[in-house]
Structure formats: C-alpha cells, structure tokens
Amino acid sequence: MVNTPTVVVLHDGTPPPEMARIAEHAELRYATGDELPQQIPGADAVFVWAFRSDALPTAWPHADKLTWIHSASAGVDRLIFDQLRDSPVTLTNSRGVFDQPMAEYVLGLVLTFAKDLHTTLRQQDRKNWQHRVTERIHGKSALIVGTGPIGRAIARQLTAAGLRVTGAGRRERTDDPDFGQVRSTDRLAEHIGEHDYVVLAAPRTPQTEGLINAEVLAACHPRTRLINVGRGELVVQPDLVEALRAGHLAGAALDVFDAEPLPPESPLWEMPDVLISPHMSGDTAGWTDELVDLFLTNLQAFARGGELVNIVDKQRGYVTTPA
Q1: Whole-prediction pTM value?
Q2: Of 117, 150, 247, 280, which has fewest CB within 10 angstroms of its CB?
Q3: For the domain that residue 116 is a member of, what is the CATH number?
Q4: What does the pLDDT read at residue 2?
Q5: Which positions fall inside the D-isomer specific 2-hydroxyacid dehydrogenase catalytic domain (predicted)?
Q6: How many Å apart are CA 256 and CA 73, to the nearest integer?
C-alpha cells in the first residue's frame, strides 16, 4: 500500500527547483523558519532545504505526527538537537551527491598550491611578469582526516594524481582499501608533520570539534598546507591564524568557517598563502536536481513503508552504513 505523506519543505526564501516531481508523491507545504511552527502540525516529514536553519528545535513541540526528516546536506550537525536525538524520528542526509565534486575541488586546491596559481592570478591582475619555479604533486603525501564517503573519494582522486595517501579516523587499521593505513585522530599531533597536505573531510561531532588546535598546528611541518572542506568548527580559527603567522605551516585553503560568511575583518582575508572560498566545494552544475532526486527516492520508499537510504546515526552524527 502506498500512502500520500504530508511533507513540509523548509527553505530560506527560495524553495528547491523541480518540486513538481515531488508533488506527484506527497502533499507539500512550504515554510520558512518563521513559518515552520504553523506548518509542521500534521506533517509526516520535513525536507530541510535550508540546512543552516535553526528552526526545527523551536517548531519541535508542534510536530505531532513527524516520523522522518531529510537534509539536503551531507552534514547534519546543525540539525541534531537533544529532543530529536532521543526521539524515534528518522533522520536521513544527502550522502553521495557531493563526494566526487568535493574530491575534484580538493585536487584543484592541491594543484593551485603546487603550481602557485593563486600567485599567478595576482601577478596577472598587476600586469607583473614574474617567473617562478613550482612544485610537483607526484610523490607528495596527503593525510585525509575523515574516512567517510567524501574522504574516500578525495583519497581516490589524490591517489590517481600520484599522491601518497593516509587516512585519519576513529579506528586505526592498516588494510583500508582506499587509504591503506588509517591513523587515529586522537593522535593527530604525532603524525601530522609527516604530510605535505592535510585535508579535513570529517563531519562535525563532539569528537572532531576543535580537532585542529594550537598543539596540532604546531606539530605541522613548515611545508604543510591545510585544506578544510569538512566543517569550519573542526579548526580553532584563531589558532590557525597564529600558526600561519608563525610559519608552522605553508598555507591553508578554507571552504568552510565557524562563522559564515567569513567576516570582512578576519585576518585570513589578507594572508597571501590562504585561499578562501564561500562553502562551494561540493556545488557543481546540476547539484540541486541531484538533491531533489535523492529526496524523491527516499520519499517513494517512505510512502510504501520501505527502507530509507542514508539513515543517520543520531548519536554519532553521521551515516554509519556502507555507501
């Protein structure tokens, strides 16, 4: 038997595209954060398009029928709160949509650093002809912090480009199919200095928040470049600024920040060896359609009482089943 669920689409003023496909399978209500408490009563599910919204905890007392929340994001740290964590409501995410685009973005950042492309563009803006010698990436080492699907896609992409890849995660092992060796994030300061590139692709959890702090940054080799496409909260930002000023590492490419947009007064804007992008590493042409397609797949399963994909372990804060 197929039911017609009632779904609230939580958006930030711009609803998702192509929702006509969804409307064939559900009764849709649209709500901004302010409107969610009025729209959520009687709803079976919430499609969180505005994944940075903090409206769910406020609307939670009005959710009298809710059994499923789907996030249009791979990270769900901004959505989980105590009442949701302790409830039977199922939470799913958009794992799989962003893996390969983010891997390609990271490779682009590695090449930008190695070939000094950011300096080339700055010199072009000044009409300044300045010959320089650049680096190879073949044979360089990269530590990928985060061994989920995004981290694995990055590992495969960098390996194909000739880098030697190691992982860092919750459990140490030596036989991982994508990383080979995986080291413990609890001992990051002991081995971070061995690597030319350190890529952060872990979710934000109580265990990873503030993972890259002054102690870890001081252990970096002066040649190391830090790339963060995970969550801004993984890095203690003032510690990173001081480490860059002190020469503890050679540069940083940051796509995520603890406050977004990055405030204009942040010293990171003015640092020559820092690359800043506005949380866009996974956003490629057609990505919004892919997010809607994934939600539709889960919605159809939900309507017939089938098994949903990408179920988040609400205690850990990420999907624990194999991709």
Answers
A1: 0.94
A2: 247
A3: 3.40.50.720
A4: 62
A5: 15-312
A6: 14
Which of the residues 78, 221, 279, 316 is marked catalytic?
279
Collect all residues with Cβ–Cβ distance below 8 Å to 277 and sequence separation of at least 6: 253, 254, 255
* Order of strands, sheet of 173-176, starting from the edge strand that comes earlier in the sequence: 173-176, 180-184, 164-169, 141-145, 197-200, 225-228, 251-254, 274-276
Total tally of structural domains belonging to the chain: 2
- Of the residues 260, 270, 290, 307, only one is catalytic, namely 260
Shared domain check, 191 and 135: yes
Is 218 within the bounds of a domain? yes
- pLDDT, one tens digit per residue, over 51-81 is 889 999 999 999 999 999 999 999 999 999 9
Which one is catalytic: 152, 183, 195, 231?
231
Same domain, 82 and 109: no
- Residue 21 annotated among the catalytic residues of the structure: no
Q: Is 307 known to be catalytic? A: no
Contact 314, 93 (CB under 8 A): no
204 is a catalytic site residue: no
- Beta-strand ranges (E) seen in the chain are 6-10, 27-31, 45-48, 68-71, 90-92, 141-145, 164-169, 173-176, 180-184, 197-200, 225-228, 251-254, 274-276, 312-313, 318-319
Residue 1 located in a structural domain: no
